[in-house]
Amino acid sequence: MSQKKSIYLIFVLLFSPKIAFATDLAAIDTGNTSWMLISTALVLLMMPGLAMFYGGLVRSKNVLSTMMHTFVAMAVIGVLWVICGYSLTFGDNVLGGIIGWNPDFFFLKGIDDKITDGIPEYIIAMFQGKFAIITPALISGALAERVYFRGYIMFITLWFLIVYSPLCHWVWASDGWLFNTGANGVIDLAGGLVIHVSAGTSALVAAIFLGPRLGFPKLAATPNNLVMTLMGAGILWVGWFGFNAGSTLQSGLATARALTMTQISAASGALMWLCIEGIVYKKASALGFASGSLAGLVVITPAAAVVQPVGAFFLGSISSIACYYALKLKMKFGYDDTLDCFGIHGVGSGLGVILLTFFIRDSWMASASEAAGRTWTVLDQLLVQLKGLGITILLAAVATYIICVIVEKTVGFRIDEEGEYIGLDKTLHGERGYDFS
Question: Could you tell me if 160 and 404 are in contact, meaning their C-beta atoms sit under 8 angstroms apart?
């Protein structure tokens, strides 16, 4: 090889990768990409936070099984999301818009070099995948202490395919029909409908279908570790910044607004719950603080992008009051939603979906009016929100009942009395959460 050719080859080897790399960098918004990487990690951090929150609330004989319900969703839904979930939710409309479909999204094979709005599509897919993971895990709170592990896995698999994927497509896909309802579509920034209302509704239906735990409500079922529950609540609070602010898919003004409203609502919700307990019981409990903060977080989830600080304050406070009294209904009506998924997530976020219309910032309403070609009123948006809420409740309730029947008739859902009495940790997993020997 001549000296001239050798020099040319060295030049190509040294500088071609840099040129290609520079081209890639030019297409990527590094600020937005960095924030979305952080947000994706924050949302996944919510999973161990949820496991700790739920795990501390059950009896010690069921702590591992309860935490496993959350962790196994990371595997089951994590795999389903890559195989078909991203396609079913963000693919093009098929079957009249009931579901999405894009063969290029199966196994994420078509997005290897795709960049959307300056962000690698892989990151967007992974961010959305974390939402898909946490949603069925929330439902597990209503099923705790009385279901087969195999039944639970089958339940979340079917629920993801039949409930979450279509609903996510309707609300968040660019051609989803709820996304395009009204002037600017149904408002649901980070999953008030898609995640919390759907999970809360399904939790109530599943809890009623399964029936109460042995001895409920007479037998005391005190939390095994409130320290762990409180730490879990703290982790959820931190993770929620990625949950809400990350849903803006940017690092800018909208992100700052969403993060700020999340903090205000969570704090006001926690404080209001403590005030209620102080008035009613003359004490302020750690569990009350955790429950209040969660009530404030779920109510702001759909609304964080459109309300201002005063709105966030009132939403968090109202949600805390409503959720506090919603938990009382469990005892009145006798259904055993073990860890109050419906009472917190369903009620709190349902309120947020509706009440946000009364606190929408003027700039959003002006944009809606421009899109509608007329003055867009609070009543107009309220009707859109009510439509979204009604559709979500109907789909989640009907589909969940059908799924429960299928699971019970095939692999079994409700565990037998002996297994429940011994505890699911020993019966189903052969382990103990705490070894006091």
Answer: no
pLDDT in tens, 215-239: 888 887 889 999 999 999 999 999 9
Per the DSSP assignment, residues forming a β-bridge with 307 are 360
> Which pLDDT does position 7 carry in this prediction?
53
Amino acid type, 73: A
Q: What is the largest distance, in Å, between two alpha-carbon atoms of the chain?
A: 91
Rounded to whole angstroms, the Cα distance separating 197 from 46 reads 18
* Element of type H or E holding 262: helix 253-281
What is the phi/psi pair of residue 418, to 5°? -65, -45
326 close to 335: Cβ distance less than 8 angstroms: no
Q: What is the pLDDT of residues 54-92, one digit of tens each?
A: 999 999 999 999 999 999 999 999 999 999 999 999 999
pLDDT at 401 over 90: yes
- Best CATH choice for the domain 38-429 from the list 1.10.10.10, 3.30.70.890, 1.10.3430.10, 3.30.70.100: 1.10.3430.10
Of 10 and 175, the one with more pLDDT: 175
* Contact between 72 and 265 (Cβ < 8 Å): no
**Sign of torsion over alpha carbons 271, 275, 280, 282:** positive
pLDDT value, residue 92: 92
Is there a contact between 78 and 129 (Cβ–Cβ < 8 Å)?
yes
Nearby residues of 191 by Cβ (< 8 Å), 6 or more positions away: 131, 135, 243, 247, 301, 302, 349
Q: Identify the DSSP state of 360.
A: B
CA distance 342 to 206: 11
Give 376's DSSP letter: P
Instruction: Quote the tokens at residue 122.
Output: 């892989």
Region of 191 please: left (phi>0), alpha (psi -120 to 50) or beta. left
The CA-atom distances, in angstroms, between 14 and each of 23, 27, 110, 362 are 16, 22, 29, 55
Q: What is the pLDDT of residue 19?
A: 42
153-163 pLDDT, tens digit per residue, is 999 999 999 99
- Strands (E) in 102-155, as ranges, are 115-116, 119-120
